[in-house]
Amino acid sequence: MDIIVCVKHVPETAEADVAIAEDGKSIKTTELVYDINEWDDYAAEEAVLLRDKLGGSVTAITVGSEEADSTLRKCLARGADRAIRLTDEAFEGSDSYVTAKILSKVIKNLPFDLILTGAQASDDGCAQVGVVLAELLGIPHATMVKKLEPKDGIVKVNQELEGGLEEIMELKLPAMLAIQTGINEPRYISIMGIRKAMKKELKVLGLKDIGLTEEEVGESGSWIIVEKMFVPSVEKEAEILTGGVDEIATKITETLKTRGLI
Amino acid sequence: MDFNLTEEQRAIKKAAREFSEKELTPELAVEFDQREEFPFELYKKAAKLGFTSMRFPEKYGGQGYGVLEDCLVTEEMCRVDPGLGVAVMLGTLMFPDGLLMFGTEEQKQRYIPPLCTGEKICAAAFSEPAHGSDITRMDTTAKKHGAEWILSGNKEFITNAPVADFFCVLCQTDTEVSPSHKGESLFAVEKGTPGLEVTKLQGKMGIKPCVTGSLALSDAAIPEANLIGELNKGFYYALDLFNGTRIAVAAEAVGMAQGAFERALRYSKERKQFGSPIIQFQGVSFKLAEMAIKIETARLITYKAAWLYDQGKMDPMTTAMAKAYASKVAMDVTDQAIQIHGGYGYLAEYHVERFHRCAKITEIYEGTTEIQKLTISRYLLKRILA
């Protein structure tokens, strides 16, 4: 089974002090540390697990700058066979649609049975690239995938729904699956893995290699333009509940019920 | 000149960081600090991922990197927890290095692979009750008897002694020669050798998961083939070995300082006094600035010592400077980290007191700070005379 896993190099923002950049449309990245998007790490692990079970190959792809090599090397150290980095100045400012378009141009010329992406990226949280990519390639897709089992030209997947529900469906291969965290337990990167990763192929392709024009990528090709980014103001509205334990518990239950939370 | 780590070195550092942050949990750290026991499971896990065999050749199951890469891993582990970090990284202490430099092919094949996989642990038995820093004379003797060496004497303060499977033991093989250090030799001794008895030392100040003990050898017979390298060269071998391990201790110290510093920095942003986070007060922020300066300089000299070593240009003076300076920095920084935490810093729950207790050893083992200064001053004198 030939698997392509699309990954993104993202800033780690969980414990960092995030600030808006001068342009008012992005965040300051100078002090931030980058790593593979958490969801993509699960997707890469799942790809390697499947390859180990069924044979075939795993190719990791990213759209990003040279710094993204560390994320690709991580995939290679995890067990991916080869990696492709798509880099061009013209790609800057691309939205999810353009990113998917860039990926589709490369992927359509590669042999594949399955494309895996993370369910979303931790930086912009768009959760769109995988789905758009599937549409552009004309293949079926599923999102929020918690379990998958390919067999005889189809893949059976468990898709996470709201409120703890799960849906089981079958997709014809080739297909695109957006992977949810928790589907596996990503292994630790070993030193042996790093040693091997440094010897594996990491191909770099630009605008000219993929057959798109400058107008078709970057901001000019995008359908979504970011106008402004800001930190929402903190609301200071709190209701202090008083009374006995039973009374307070009843009030909490009522509030939650009226808000539709339980 | 390039101060950047390579892509590969950055990947190693990151892998070590991810492993340490997930596995060397504060709960585990406190538990093993209290139990004073070696963390076997953690050691094996780290070994399986290659972290404990960084500097050994691939041929023997190692990772084929150098002292610098070994330092990167050590630093990351000690940053998360000094006790567990040191315990894990010292499981393969010195013995394989000695074999690689001076041993026979048979010795390398026999001992190094099981150390790389984490099945076995080793120890280096140099110090004696009457000889700590001074290894110019050994009271432990080895006498040739037929095809065997008969070892007798006591070794003290031996890292890993209670859990080690293999020991390299420094003995006096020529008791007549003067100066006496020209009559010392190094031997490989295996656990279970009749006449070898090991006792565990309890009540250390820090690095408690890295267990220490003493050896009593009473007519312990080992095969002739267990002599490492040439007869009566042991003293010189020991000095060569210390030049490698001292860099590793400097890396431990840098990691400990970094870990305590990060805890203090985080705390200073959260803790409010007089209406502001305490980092807003110059008394605290300047402390942090000074800690950052010290750590960065200690790290640079440590990397330089490691780099020189890997280039085959090992410089005992740089190594001694790295060890003496980084260990001092570790003591200062962990002390200030407690100070920034105030009363909370004095509690085990806030972890920095453990970092401070652990940091002290870096000024003592593998040659005290005074011994490092002795080395430095001797080289300075030589340079002046030359």
Draw up the topology in text.
The complex is a heterodimer of chains A (262) and B (386).
Chain A: E1 2-6, E2 9-11, E3 34-36, H1 38-54, E4 57-63, H2 69-78, E5 82-86, H3 96-107, E6 114-118, H4 129-137, E7 141-151, E8 154-160, E9 166-172, E10 175-179, H5 191-197, E11 201-205, H6 207-210, H7 218-221, H8 245-258
Chain B: H1 7-23, H2 26-35, H3 40-48, H4 67-80, H5 82-89, H6 95-102, H7 105-116, E1 122-125, E2 141-145, E3 148-159, E4 166-172, E5 184-190, E6 196-201, E7 212-223, E8 227-228, H8 234-270, E9 272-273, E10 276-277, H9 282-310, H10 316-341, H11 352-359, H12 369-385
Parallel strand pairs in B: 1-4
Antiparallel strand pairs in B: 2-3, 3-7, 4-5, 5-8, 6-7, 9-10
Account of the 3D structure:
The complex is a heterodimer of chains A (262) and B (386). Helix content of chain A is 29%, strand content 24%. The model of chain A has no long low-confidence stretch (mean pLDDT 94). In chain A, helix 3 packs across helix 4. Chain A has 262 residues and is an alpha/beta fold. Chain A contains eight helices and eleven strands. Chain B has three domains: 7-116, Orthogonal Bundle (Butyryl-Coa Dehydrogenase, subunit A, domain 1); 122-232, Butyryl-CoA Dehydrogenase, subunit A, domain 2, CATH 2.40.110; 236-385, Up-down Bundle (Butyryl-CoA Dehydrogenase, subunit A, domain 3). Helix content of chain B is 51%, strand content 15%. Chain B contains twelve helices and ten strands. In chain B, a hairpin with a 2-residue loop joins strand 9 (272-273) and strand 10. The longest helix of chain B has 37 residues, at 234-270. The two termini of chain B are 28 Å apart. The model of chain B has no long low-confidence stretch (mean pLDDT 96). Classes of the chains: A alpha/beta (262), B alpha+beta (386). The A-B interface holds A 35, 69-70, 73-74, 77, 188-195, 197-198 and B 7-8, 10-12, 14-15, 18-19, 22, 48-51, 54, 63-65.
